[in-house]
Amino acid sequence: MNAPQAAIALDARPRVAGHFRLQWEEVQKAWVLLYPEGMVKLNGSAGEIMQRLDGEKTVQALIDELESSFETSGLTQDVLDFLAIAQRQGWVKP
C-alpha cells in the first residue's frame, strides 16, 4: 500500500513529469498531456496551471500569476487541490 503523498508546498517548484509532454492541440482546442500509452485532455483551468509549471516558478508565484492574469483572488486552494491530483496521477514532480 502506498503512503499518501504530502501536499505540494507553496515554495515548491513543480514541473511536468519527464515522461509527459504538454502541448496545445488545436483540433481539440485544449492543452493535452501526451505520454507513450496515450493522451490526457486537460480542462481549461488545468491547462492554465500545467503550462506554467517550469520547475523554476514557485507554487506561490504560479498562484500570483494566475490571479493577476485572470483578475481574481482566492485561487490558492483550487491550485493546491489540482496539483495534489496531478502529483498523484504522476503528471507533476514537485
UniProtKB/TrEMBL annotation:
One annotated GO molecular function: quinone binding
Protein's GO biological process: pyrroloquinoline quinone biosynthetic process
Pfam (any one): PqqD
Pathway terms, separated by semicolons: Cofactor biosynthesis; pyrroloquinoline quinone biosynthesis
Keywords, ordered alphabetically: PQQ biosynthesis
InterPro entries for the chain: PQQD, PqqD_bac, PqqD_sf
Organism domain of life: Bacteria
Family according to the record: Belongs to the PqqD family.
Subunit structure: Monomer. Interacts with PqqE.
NCBIfam families hit by this protein: PQQ_PqqD, PRK02079.1
Function: Functions as a PqqA binding protein and presents PqqA to PqqE, in the pyrroloquinoline quinone (PQQ) biosynthetic pathway.
HAMAP family recorded: PQQ_syn_PqqD
Name the UniProt record assigns to this protein: PqqA binding protein
Source organism of this protein record: Thiobacillus denitrificans
Designated gene of the protein: pqqD
